[in-house]
Structures are given as C-alpha cells and as structure tokens.
Write a structure and sequence with these properties.
By secondary structure, the chain is α/β, with parallel strands linked by helices. It has 2 domains: 15-74, Orthogonal Bundle (Helicase, Ruva Protein, domain 3), CATH 1.10.8; 84-283, 3-Layer(aba) Sandwich (Rossmann fold), CATH 3.40.50. The protein has 11 helices and 9 strands. It has helices spanning 15-26, 33-45, 49-55, 65-73, 78-82, 106-115, 133-141, 154-166, 206-209, 225-233, 253-261; strands at 84-87, 90-93, 124-127, 147-151, 173-177, 188-193, 238-247, 266-271, 277-283. The chain has a 7-stranded mixed beta sheet with strand order 5-4-3-6-7-9-8, sandwiched between helices. Strands 1-2 form a two-stranded antiparallel sheet. It starts with 14 loop residues before the first helix and ends with a strand.
Length: 284
Amino acid sequence: MTGPPPTPPASGRGVRAALTAAARSLATASDTPRLDAELLMAQALGVAREQMLLRHLDDPAPATFAALIERRLAHEPVAYITGRRAFWTIELWVGPGVLIPRPDSETLIEAAVAHFADRAPTTILDLGTGPGTLLLAALAEWPEAPGLGVDASDAALGYARANADRLGLAGRAEFVGGDWAAGIDQRFDLILCNPPYVATSDDLPAEVRDHEPAAALFAGADGLDDYRIIATQLPRLIAPGGMAAIEIGARQADAVAALLTAQGLTVALRHDLAGRARCLVARP
C-alpha cells in the first residue's frame, strides 16, 4: 500500500534547503530529481540555472517554487513548465502540443556536421519539424543556408515560427503545413527527419504519454508507418552529394534500413552518446 505523495517544499526557507527537499520529493516522479529541482528553482527566480547555482543559493526560496514542484510531481514535463528546452547550440520555446526536443536527436546534427565537414549544405529540409528543433539547429550551424520545415500540426508550426523569430533566423526559415514531403519537388543537400516511431502498444512514461502529442509519438502497430511513407519520398528529395539523417528507435535500425535500401539508398547507422542506435544516414 502506498501513501500520499511527498509534500512539496514549503516557501519560507532558503534556496539551498528548498532544492534539497524538492529533489527528495521529485525522486518519486523523475529520473533526474536534482536537475529538475534546479531548473524549476531557476524558473521561479527568473534567472538562468547557472546563475542560480552561483549567486542565489542563500536567497529566500520564492513562494512560486512549490507550485512548480507540484506540477512536476504530477508528471508534467519540466520543459512545459519552464516553456523552453536547450538543443544543440540554441534554446527553443516549447509547450503543450509540441514534441519536446531530446538530446538524443542531436545525433542527427552530428551526422550532418560530419558529412559536410569541408563544405556547407546550401538547402535544408526538416520533415516533421515540431517547434523547429532540427531545422533551426542546422541553420544556426550553417549561417548561409536557407531551410524549409514541414509539419502537420498547426500548434507545432506556431512554435517553430516563434522560435525562428526569437533566434533571428526567420529570414532563412520557412515553415509550411504538409503531409511529410507530399507536393515538394525541390532537392535538398540536407534532409533531417524525426518522425513518430513508437508502436501503439508500447508503454511510455507518464510525462510523455499524458502530456506530449500522440500524433508526434505513435506510428502504428510496429512504429514504422511513417517510415514507410518517408522512405519512398527521399530518393527524389536528396540532391547529389547530399544526405538524409533520420531518427530511429533503438530497436528499429534493421527494419528502417531495409525500407531505405529498397528505395536504392545507401544507409549507414550512427549511435547516440549512450551507445543506442539513433540515426540512419541515407545517401543516393
């Protein structure tokens, strides 16, 4: 029999003590309780986390901190509570209705940087752009390139355009609604794609299942529905000498590679920092 959830830390104590109490409470709801507590405390203080750790540990804890911890104890993602998430060299605004950027997805940018080591892509396409995650990271990496981001979600496109404006990239980033690459007849040096790849029967953590958009997560009984569409589109989209970087689930490398090679593409696998299969690089 389980008891009631731990009580969030009360206001009226110092930041240092409030962080310790919050991390203890969040251990029931998060794999990174101390980090979550620090990010939420920085949010409550209105400062960067690094600044909070350096300058504010002896300050009084703000009264708003307890409410933020309560939201996290209910499994609301930290990125939705703070409204932002760092990715690659940029920070993105995020919120309900958009997929939260994950560090694992940086593997796609790393693969692109390796491919274009001695040159820069001149045209970039991001299929399923969400809040602009991969496209805006790529545009920040290659400051002369323009890019196109496509998504079926109006909410995601709204965030993507706002992020492009805030990052000063709106002049090089175009965002359009669409069903993957349907109707696009241009070729691109670099194509980035993080499609839904979770099987409908797979179990997800509550903070993902109950908060992030299902349309950005699930892709049929085997998680491959969207790959089947994208694989048929890529050969006409990749420019000579170009590449596509496609995110995959940790156990999907063989199945997705087979879909891509059936379309005449050459495929290579890249792993994320944890050693998991994370990205397939496809070339003509």
